[in-house]
Here is the input.
Amino acid sequence: AYVLFFWVLARVGATRIMVIPYLIPAFGVLWGALLLHEPVSARMLGGCAVILLGTALTTGLVRTRRTAPALAAEKA
Here is the structure.
């Protein structure tokens, strides 16, 4: 696991690899439901959605729109 971790670290960088610990609860819910047939509630799915959206925003997979004042301030 350490070899794989450091290989990914070298490949994507420290900033992007720091989102991995945030994904552990979402994958825990997934594997618990698939392998152990544990019940999944709406709250659990909502929490997983928040985790995945935050991870996508952090890594740049999803970008937010900038408003006109923000763009004007950036050009100045």
The radius of gyration is 17 Å. Residues 2-75 form one domain. The CA atoms of residues 8 and 14 lie 9 Å apart.
